[in-house]
Amino acid sequence: MASLKELKERIGSVISTRQVTSAMKMVSAAKLRKAQQLILRARPYSDELNLFLNSLASRNRRQLHPLLHEIDDDEVKNVGLIVVTADKGLCGAFNMNIIKRAEEYFQDHKDKNIDLICVGKKVFDYFRRLNMEIEAFYVELFNKLEFEHSRDIMHLVTDKFVSKKYDKVLIVYNEFKSAIQQNIVLKQLLPIIGLKEDTKDKLAAYLFEPSAEEVLDELIKEHLDVQIWRVLLESSSAEQGARMVAMDAATDNADEMINDLTLEYHHLRQSKITTEIIEVCSGAEGLQ
Amino acid sequence: MANNSQLLHLKIVTPKGIFIEDDVSELVAPGKDGDFGVLIGHTPFISSVRPGILKIYRNEKPDLYSLMNGFVMVDVDKVRIFTEIIERPEDIDQNRAERAKERAEKRLQEKKEDTDLRRAEAALKRSIARIQLSEEGFH
Question: Which of B67, B87, B107 is the last residue in one of the domains?
């Protein structure tokens, strides 16, 4: 059995761990609120841009933009796979779920040549340890998300796609469902799918500068950029949610442990006092 | 005092929210093919933007902002600007912009094999727009 002093030290260390986890929980809650606000604020921008894009892309159906060219699944040989995790741990199975999903994809598509693009320190460290070839990586960005990050990723994949090095670009990430729930999502980024046909051509009255083709080209890239930006925001919200839940559970566990240890400490102290009293009494009796 | 029918309704939308929504008398934007001014009654048109200075006239003296990229959508009585990054003069860290400019220039000069020239060029243009804004913006 542990001594009184050991128990006391143990309790002290659990208390300080509890302080850390409960502080982290509160920090995550605050960060989650911020990240959610960013998602909401991005909405009008991407909605308006989409309207604009649908109308312009429908107009130019005859000469399809290279980023909209779809090819048959059988012909897909080279895939760019973007894997998005967090930079930090302590958020439950958040990172591992994504890594597992990516590995599943590797297993299921052994016939294809898959290039790995890592976003977030956790996935980068994981695949580097396995000595996997990593095409590109972006780490330590979730602390302060900037448009430069999404723009860099967008340029990388569009260049490779246009030069036919990739036939397809996919992204796997945690979608923010609610503070306590994340969905693992594997989404196709390129070629761009899901544009709505817009027969009315709302932009018929407009002139374009430098030209409709150039504006469309930039618009498509902007659209892709916003999609990646939203994925980064989703992942960052989901991460904070996951960390909040993990830290809440850790705080509860610490509370339970403190209770158990305190009880044990009191037991031990009481029995020690009892023994001492008995010793004193029997000592006094011996003197009489 | 200009009356209200003489004013353009300007809305600048960014992914971080609506940056400005206001009635203005005139604006000058850095179009891809050169700067253009917009007054009320302009022909509807859409232009993409290069990194540069956006001037907004609410009165005699214009307010200056730096734009990095995006689109300007002009209607007869309103203008919408979609952009990822727009900055006020007070947002600009001139030293940082100078350093970015030097870095980009160096990268362009060295022309190493792994240098992404287009990215370096874009970075150079961005830093020039920022420096220009921080020099002119407060006048």
Answer: B87
d(CA A138, CA A118): 6
Query: Which residues constitute the domain of residue B33?
Result: 4-87
| B44·A229 Cβ contact <8 A | no
SS3 state at B17: strand
Query: What CATH code is carried by the domain that includes residue B127?
Result: 1.20.5.440
Q: Can you give the C-alpha Rg of chain B in angstroms?
A: 16
Distance of alpha carbon A284 from the chain centroid: 70
Same domain for B62 and B23, yes or no, is yes
Q: What's the domain count of chain B?
A: 2
B chain contacts of residue A229, beta-carbon cutoff 8 Å: 15
CB contact under 8 A, B44 and A206: yes
Q: Are the beta carbons of A83 and A117 closer than 8 angstroms?
A: yes
C-alpha angle with apex A205: A201 to A207, nearest 5 degrees? 110
Query: By the CB < 8 Å criterion, does A49 face chain B?
Result: yes
Confidence of residue B115 (pLDDT cuts 50, 70, 90): low
Same domain, B66 and B100: no
Dump pLDDT digits (tens) for A105-161. 999 998 899 999 999 999 999 999 999 989 999 999 998 888 888 988 999 999 999
Write the pLDDT tens digit of every residue in B47-76: 999 999 999 998 888 899 999 889 999 988
Contact B64, B87 (CB under 8 A): no
Q: What pLDDT, in 10s, does the model give residues A162-193?
A: 888 999 999 999 999 888 889 999 999 988 88
